Amino acid sequence: SKPANNDENYAVNWCGWGYEANVTPKQMTGTIPKLKELGIHWATLDDRWFSDYGDWLPRTDTFPGDAIQQLVKEFHQQGIKMQLWWLPLAVEDGKYRYEEHKYVVSDVVKEHPDWLILDKNGQPARMARNLATLCPALPEVQDYYKKLTEGFIRDWDFDGHKLDNIYSVPPCYNSKHHHKSPNDSVYAMGDVYKIIFETTRALKPNSITQSCPCGTPPSLAWFRYLDQAVTADPVGSLQVRRRIKMYKALLGPRAAIYGDHVELTRLLGANTSHEQDVGSDFASSLGAGGVLGTKFTWPDYGPQYKAVFLNDQKMDHWKKWIALYNQKMLSKGNFLDLYVYGYDSPEAYAIEKDGNLFYAFYAPSDAGQSDAGSPTPGTWKGDVELRGLATKPYRVLDYANNKDYGTVSGPAPRLHVEFQDHLLLQATPASASAANSAQGTP
Ligand SMILES: [Zn+2]
Ligand SMILES: [Zn+2]
Question: How far is the centre of ligand 1, averaged over its atoms, from the C-alpha of 90 (Å)?
Answer without folding.
Answer: 14
